Amino acid sequence: MNTAVQFAGILSFDDAYEVVREYCGRILKAEDRPSEEVLLLQSAGRILAEPIKADRDFPPFPRATRDGFAVRADDLARGLMLLRVVGQVRAGDSYDLPVASGEAVEIMTGAAIPAGADAVVMVEYSERKTVEINRKEREGTQRGQESEQANLDTGDVLGLRQEQQGAPEEAVKEDLVEIQRTVASGENIVPAGAEAQTGQELLPLGVRMGAAQIALAAAAGKARVMVYRQPRVAILSTGDELVEVAEKPGPSQIRNSNSYSLAALVAECGGEPVQLPIAPDEQGKLTELIQEGLKANMLLLSGGVSMGKFDLVEQALNTLRAKFFFTGALIQPGKPVVFGEARATPFFGLPGNPVSVMVTFELFARQVVEALSGAEPERLKSAKAKLKKEFKTKTGLTRFLPALLSGGLDDPEVELVPWQGSGDMLAAARANCYLVVPPDREKLAKGEMVTVVMR
Ligand code: AMP
Ligand code: MG
Predict the structure, then answer these.
(1) Residue 303 CB–ligand 1 contact under 6 Å
(2) Is 353 in the pocket of ligand 1 (CB under 6 A)?
(3) Residue 302 CB–ligand 1 contact under 6 Å
(4) In sequence order, what DSSP letters do the residues of 42-87 get, joined into one string?
(5) Which of 43, 101, 181, 248 is surrounded by the most beta carbons within 10 Å?
(6) Ligand 1 pocket member 333 (CB < 6 A)
(7) Which atom of ligand 1 is nearest to the CA of 237?
């Protein structure tokens, strides 16, 4: 399918990375990727195959973002700071009368702003007051006329004369609130439709469903969503020294752990791992199993890509008329990594050392799994950290060395995990990142800010 990516021999890390990205771009352009419907929660980690649209405005009503009082900002601007509390509205409730001048509605965070009000004063800037007033005076006060008396005196503002007049039997209790600062119109309110309007796209197709995306789909009433089928990624470990995990290895044998690290990595980035039986270092059987693996959407091979007499993977792929996009990258670990395509299926030949296999998966293969899942592949996630201890190396290769990132948000520190080379699985298990050494550096100094790639 991807004939445009040409064979390029051994590449620098940057070039190899770009070759893979270009290939991924082509995968993403391919049409008719199969999809399936799943329950919303089952979409976690999967790639959305339909856009999700707003079935109503987000928020559906002007929403209070604070506890306090819904008011008319204009009242306060005109100095009318003592307002009559005419109701209360909690989240889920509504207050159905329009708020008139001189009135306030007590409101809770998340509740709908009643009509007429255009701002919320935080409860911190208010003081409730209950005042006894003369019924006759109260009735004589027309709603909306209070503003003519821009006077903070309680009685004047509301037309009350409870101290000077009014027999006790005529008095009623008035619920008031004194507002201590003005607010701008719109303050502490998210207008209806401010986040999205009915029919607007909330999530485009191709998005990976995480907690925030699932929440959005839930808010839009999507109990089920369409996601792309997960690509099947065949994993084929090669090597005469390998036995399956449940078997007892002979004195010079080792267990096939790479099939497991790779399967875990494939599952982590949204693929469905298919572990094939171990391939011996023998042309016929190896070719047969590679053919089997090429029936999947992608094939990951472990081992057999170095320069040794029994490194037969490239040969076997050649007999299947594979195209190679690169046959090595100037990196350590993982220099012999191979990337190509055979029978329209992308494959990687990953060097068999357990750390190499994981590093080369992270650097290159992960992106292809993501693209086959229907997602724009994520770039490597990097961060800067202060190197705890100096170390020396040789120039020529970009190195990705197992390292431990520690420290706080403001003072991240990193140190290499001691390791016995690219076969050291224990080092990989103790590490939480890879320290990146650029190819032109012989020495990294203590205290230097260095780049790490997160796993
Ligand atoms: P190779 O790339 O085939 O030369 O393998 C390099 C080394 O990696 C071998 O000598 C093994 O020690 C180790 N190795 C290869 N394949 C596996 C595997 N599937 N699981 C664990 N270790 C492996
Ligand atoms: Mg081998």
Answers:
(1) yes
(2) yes
(3) yes
(4) GGTTSBBSS-EE-SS-BSSS-EE-SSEEEE-HHHHHTT--EEEEEE
(5) 43
(6) no
(7) 19
296 lines ligand 1 (CB under 6 A): no
Q: How far is the CA of 277 from the centre of ligand 2 (A)?
A: 15
| Structural contact between residues 321 and 342, judged by C-beta atoms closer than 8 angstroms | yes
Sign of the torsion formed by the C-alpha atoms of 116, 122, 126 and 129: positive
**Which burial class, exposed, middle or buried, applies to 282 when counting CB atoms under 10 A from its CB (0-12, 13-18, 19+)?**
middle
Express each pLDDT in 152-210 by its tens digit.
444 444 544 444 444 455 778 899 999 999 999 999 999 999 999 999 999 999 999 99
Amino acid (1-letter code) at residue 337: V
The length of the chain, given as a count of residues: 455
Mutation choice for ligand 1 from 302, 332, 360, 426, CB with most ligand atoms inside 8 A: 302
Total-model pTM: 0.87
Rounded distance, CA 395 to CA 442, Å? 6
Averaged pLDDT in 10-residue chunks for the chain of 455 residues = 60 97 95 94 97 97 97 97 96 94 97 97 96 66 42 44 50 92 97 97 97 98 98 98 97 98 97 98 97 98 93 95 96 97 98 97 98 95 97 96 96 96 94 97 97 93
Classify 350 as helix, strand or coil.
strand
The distance in angstroms from the start CA to the end CA of the chain is 30
Does the beta carbon of 334 sit less than 6 angstroms from any atom of ligand 1? no
- Residue 123 DSSP code: G
Instruction: Tell me which ligand sits closest to the C-alpha of residue 235.
Output: 1
Residue found by looking up tokens 């007892």 in the block: 248
Q: How far is the CA of 245 from the centre of ligand 1 (A)?
A: 14
Structure tokens at 283: 């042309």
